[in-house]
Amino acid sequence: MTNVGVNGYGTIGKRVADAVAAQPDMTLVGVAKTRPNFEAETAARKGYPLYAAVADRADRFAEEGLELAGAVDDLVAEADVVVDCTPSGIGAENAALYEERDTPAIYQGGEDADVADVSFNARANYTEAVGADSARVVSCNTTGLSRILAPLDEAYGVEKARVTLVRRGGDPGQTGRGPIDDILPDPVTIPSHHGPDVNTIFPDLDIDTLGMKVPATLMHTHSVNVTLESSPNADEVRDLFADETRLFQIPAGADIDGSGKLKEFAHDAGRPRGDLWENCIWEESITVEGHDLYLFQAIHQESDVVPENVDAIRALTGAADAAESRTTTEDAMGVGI
Ligand code: NAD
Q1: Spelled out in words, what is the top-level CATH class assigned to the domain 141-299?
Q2: Where in the chain is the domain with CATH 3.40.50.720?
Q3: Widest distance between CA atoms in the chain
Q4: CA distance 152 to 234
Q5: d(CA 163, CA 172)
Q6: How large is the average pLDDT for residues 88-106?
Q7: Which residues line ligand 1 (CB under 6 A)?
Q8: pLDDT exceeds 90 at position 241
Q9: CB 104 within 8 A of CB 118
C-alpha cells in the first residue's frame, strides 16, 4: 500500500483525495487545509485525517469543532508521496518541505514546469516519471490535448497542431472571476501558454495555440485542427479514439449541444460532483479534409487531471506500469463512458 497525503484541499485536492481513497493499493493518510471552511468539514465527515497547512491558524480548526491530526510537516512524514494541490505558485514554495523529508511530490499544472523533474500525462509519457522524485501533472487543457495528440501521433504522425481554447472564466465556486459580460482574447498575444505547455510533454511537436476567455464556468471547449502525416478517414479516427478509455465521443443522437447538457449527463449518470474525467469529443465534429483533422472537444477543468494524479503516484513509486496503472485507476474511479 502507498501512503498518500494531499496538501491543499480545494477544487483539485478534494477530488484527488477521493480518487486516492478509492484505489485498492493506496491509503489516504490525510489532507492539509489552510482554514476550517466547508471543505474541511466535508473532509472530516468523510473520515479523512485533517492537518493544518499553516501552523499559526491551527486554533481556528478547534474553534470550529474540527479535530486536527497534526501539522502539514506531520502529514509529509506520514506520506510515501504527497500530492500538492495548492494554488499556482504555492506548490513551488512547498517544494522544500517535501525535499527536506525526501518525500516524492506531485505538483499541479499551475506551477512552472521546472518545479518538478518531469511534466506528466499518463497516456503520453508515464515511463518518464517512473522513479523520479517529483512530477507535475500538466494543466486541464494540456491534459486534454495530450490525450488526443498521443494516439494521433502514434497512428498517423502529427505534422502540426493548431488549437483555439475557449476557456471558462472561472470555476463555479470562483465568484470573483470573470468576465461577466465579455469575450476576451486571453492572452491577446499568440501563442497562448498552452502550446509551450504541450511541448513539456511532446518536446518535438509543432503546435500553435490561441486562448480566449468567456462568461462560463462549467467547462473549456477546444476547437482543434491537427495536420497529420497521413490521411485517415473520419471513421478511422473515431475507431482510434474509441480504444482510448479517457476519450468519450459524444454520440450524434445524444442531443448534447454543449457543456450544460454534458454536466447534466454526468449528474444523471451519478458521477460524483458531476465530474467528467474524460475528454468529451463531439463525434459529429470529427472531420478529415486531406491531411487536416478537425474536431471540437469539451474539457471539464475541475476533474480531467484527477486520474492523471493517481497514475503519477504509481509512476513515482514504480508501483505499476502505465497500462496497469491506468486500468486500476479507471476501475476504481469508474472512468470510461
Ligand atoms: P483551489 O483554490 O480550488 O484550491 C487550492 C486549495 O489550497 C484551497 O483550499 C486553499 O485554501 C489551499 N491552500 C492555499 N494555500 C495553501 C498552503 N500554503 N498550503 C496548503 N493549502 C493551501 O485551487 P485549484 O483550482 O484546486 O488549483 C490547484 C492547482 O491545480 C493549481 O496549480 C491549478 O492551476 C491547478 N489546476 C486547477 C484546475 C481548475 O480548473 N481548478 C485545473 C487543473 C489544474
Answers
A1: alpha beta
A2: 2-137+305-333
A3: 65
A4: 12
A5: 24
A6: 98
A7: 7-13, 32, 34, 53, 85-88, 90, 108-111, 139-140, 171, 301-302, 305
A8: yes
A9: no
**Percent of the chain whose pLDDT exceeds 90:** 99
| CA separation, residue 13 to residues 27, 86, 90, 107, 282 (Å) | 15, 8, 14, 11, 29
Measure the N-to-C terminal CA separation of the chain; round to a whole number of Å. 28
Give the pLDDT of residue 56: 86
Q: Where in the chain is the domain with CATH 3.30.360.10?
A: 141-299
Q: Which three cell numbers stand for residue 258?
A: 454543449
Grid cell at residue 102 = 525526501
DSSP state of 258: S
Q: Cα 304 to chain center, whole Å?
A: 4
302-327 confidence digits (pLDDT tens): 999 999 999 999 999 999 999 999 99
Helix %, strand %, coil % of the chain (to 5): 40, 25, 40
Catalytic status, residue 280: no
145-198 pLDDT tens trace: 999 999 999 999 999 999 999 999 999 999 999 999 999 999 999 999 999 999
CA dihedral (74, 78, 80, 82) in degrees, to 10, reads: -40
Share of the chain above pLDDT 70, in %: 100
Mean residue pLDDT of the chain comes to 97
Band (pLDDT 50/70/90 cuts) for residue 55 is confident
Which among 6, 7, 9, 11 is the best mutation to test ligand 1's pocket, defined by most ligand atoms within 8 Å of the CB? Answer: 11
Cα of 86 to ligand 1 centre, how many Å? Answer: 4
Place of cell 511541448: 199
Q: Quick one: fold of 2-137+305-333?
A: Rossmann fold (3.40.50)
